[in-house]
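Appendix C reproduces, verbatim, an entry submitted by the partner laboratory led by Prof. M.T., so that reviewers can inspect both the input and the predicted structure.
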Amino acid sequence: MFSDPVKRINTGADLANFRRSQALSRIQETLFSTIEKIKSVPVPSGILQAAIITKGSTEELIHVQSPSTEYQDTVNKFSKPIQGLMAVLDHLDHLLTETPPAKGPRRFGNLECRKWHDKVSSSLDEALRTHLYPYYSGKDPDGFFSEAKCYLANAFGSKMRLDYGTGHELSYMAFVGALVRNGVIDWSSVSAEEVISIYSRYFDVARRLILVYNLEPAGSHGVWGLDDHFHLMYILGAAQFVDNRSAPSVSQVLQSQVISRFRLSNLYVNAVGFIYTIKSGPFNEHSPIVYDIHSTVTLWSKVLQGLVRMYEAEVISKFPVVQHFWFGGELYPWKDQSGSALPQSEAIESSETGMPPSINVHTTRNNISMTGAPWARR
C-alpha cells in the first residue's frame, strides 16, 4: 500500500539495513539502467541553458528566458509522458523566476528560497495531476503520486538548511525510477535523448536555484570531494562519452576550447563549465579530484567505472547523505529482499521537517573518510 515516506535511517548502524533493502536495490537498478540507456548519446539541442554556465549577474540569471524556443521545439518531439515531466520541471523553474532573491549581502542561503519551496509545496499536486496523472495506469494514482511527490519535492535542496547536495540529486533519480517502475515512463520505448533530457533539465533548474539563492553545499568535502553539489551529473556525462567516437580525450576536457564545444551536449563537460562559473583560481587547487581524473585516466570507460565506485562509497553509503532519504510503503520500502520489514531504530528528534540541522565543519583530507577511485595516486 502506498504511504508517504518516513525517516528510517536515524543512526550510522541503520546503514547496514539500508544496504540490504529493496530501496537500495531499486536505486541501483535505476542508476545502471540509466547509464546503459544514455551511453554515447549527446544532450539534444536547446535543452541545456548556456546562461547557467556563463559568468554574469544574478539579475541576468533571474530573468533568463526559460524555456527558449529551441528548447520547446525539441521537447515537442518527445513522447507525451516525457513532455509531461519536462512541463513539471518547467513549472518549478517558472516559480523561481517569479520569486526573486531578497536584496542585500548574505554569504549563503537567500531566505526567499523558502518562499520558493512554499510555492512548490502548494502547487506540485496540481502540476503532477495535470502533466503526469494521465500516463499512470495503476489502481491508485492518488496514492502513487502522493508517495512519489515526496522524492521530487526533496530533489531541490533543503528549505530549512538552504543547501543542496548529492542527496538531492539522488532523490530526483529515485523519482524518475518510480515513474519507470510504475509505467508512467515506458523504459522500453523511451529514447536515450529523452532520458538524458529529463536529467539535463533537472540539473539546470537545480543549478539555477543554487546560483539565484546562493545555496550552501550540502555535505561537501570541500576541495577533497569530487564537486560541491553534484556527483550523478558526472556519472551520466561520462557515460555519454563512452563508445562515442566524437568524444574528446579525457585529458583534454579541462581545456577551454573543449568546454566551449561540448558544454551544451555533455553533462560532464557542462558540470566542469559550472565549476569555472562559480570558482576562480587554479583548477587543480579548488577541484583537485576532478583535476586528478584528467591527469591520470585515459579511457572514458575507466572514468565512468571510477565515478560509479565513488558514488557507491561516498553518496549511497554515507550516513550524512542517505539519512535524508526516506522510505514509503511501495516505491522505496524499508524491507529486505524477501519482503520482510527491516529493523527500525529509534527516531531522533529533529527540526519541523524531520531533517536534522546542518553543522558547518571545516573539512580537510585528514578528518573525512574518502574512498579512492581507480585513478587516485595518493
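Strands lie at 163-165, 216-218. Additional entries are available on request from the coordinating office.
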